[in-house]
Amino acid sequence: MRQDVKSIFTISYHNIFEYPLTEEELSYWQPGKALDMKLVGRAQVQQKGDYFFIKDRERLIGQRKKRKKLSRGKIRLAVKWAKTISIIPTVRMVGLTGALAMDNARADSDVDLIIICQKSLLWTTRLAVVLLIDLLGIPRNARGKIEKDHLCLNMWLDEGDLVWPKNDRNFYTAHEIIQIVPLVNKNQVFSKLILKNSWTDYYWPKAARKVKETQVRSMRPANEKRFISQYLYAAISKVFEPLAFRLQYLYMQKKITRELVTPGRAIFHPRDWGQIVKQNLGQ
After folding, report:
1. How far apart are the C-alpha atoms of 236 and 238, rounded to whole Å?
2. Structural domain containing residue 37
3. Are strands 111-117 and 151-158 parallel, antiparallel or unpaired?
């Protein structure tokens, strides 16, 4: 497939998120074998200075620079809150996701975080985290509302369930995984997430391999710290964890639309961005 076709796709994809690309980023986010010509539209590309963008979208350059500055303050909040959340011993990783991970947050954006929990303790951990942040008065989104500079814990994964489901693998989910910025990373869990999802290089090969190489280089010999005793872990995971899942599931059951809620993961994305991206491409 011609390189210019791939570039048009990459620029068109990021245009959906109002994100013009530098030449380095355009190379980094080149699509892989998953690219279908049906997803490549007839968009005309322009360049001004260091940025490539869809024709007549030059205004996005200034907007991106403004959003980068806005993101700095939100990231400082995220770092502070991630450290607080990591006090819970069963929290294994906390990372930036969404627009903030790309330095592309709007002024009214919230702060999206992913949390990976110790194996078989996701719902116990979630309960503990929510109680902690409410006790400390950390502002968080609730009841489906998105509020400026509020914490949004929209992605929870169990350490033993890191492989992304095959029916939800697409350009969007691959991009979301690759762009995660770890803020707290106990026992190299982020490296495990990246290595368990090597399928992402089918969509964004250069970006996926770069992140993978970085994580492999940073890995140390296995010497995992145990944050709670073996006996306490067994008691909580066997007895309290199933109860914590049932109680929280019953509480949110009536509010669930397309959110994914299972014993091993909770993904609170009411909009199907994978489908939205597909619909916007190829036009």
Report:
1. 6
2. 3-62
3. parallel
Backbone angles phi, psi at 269, to 5 degrees: -120, 90
Q: If we measure between CA atoms, which residue out of 19, 31, 198 comes closest to residue 100?
A: 19
SS3 content of the chain, % helix, strand, coil (to 5): 50, 15, 35
End-to-end CA distance of the chain: 19
Residue whose tokens read 């980023």? 25
pLDDT tens column, 10-56:
999 999 999 999 999 999 999 999 998 877 877 899 999 999 999 99
Please indicate, yes or no, whether residues 164 and 83 belong to a single structural domain of this protein: yes
- Parallel, antiparallel, or unpaired: how do β-strands 260-262 and 265-267 relate? antiparallel
Backbone φ and ψ of 205, nearest 5°: -60, -45
pLDDT tens column, 142-159: 766 788 999 999 999 999
Same domain, yes or no: 114 and 79: yes
| CA–CA dist 23, 130 (Å, integer) | 42
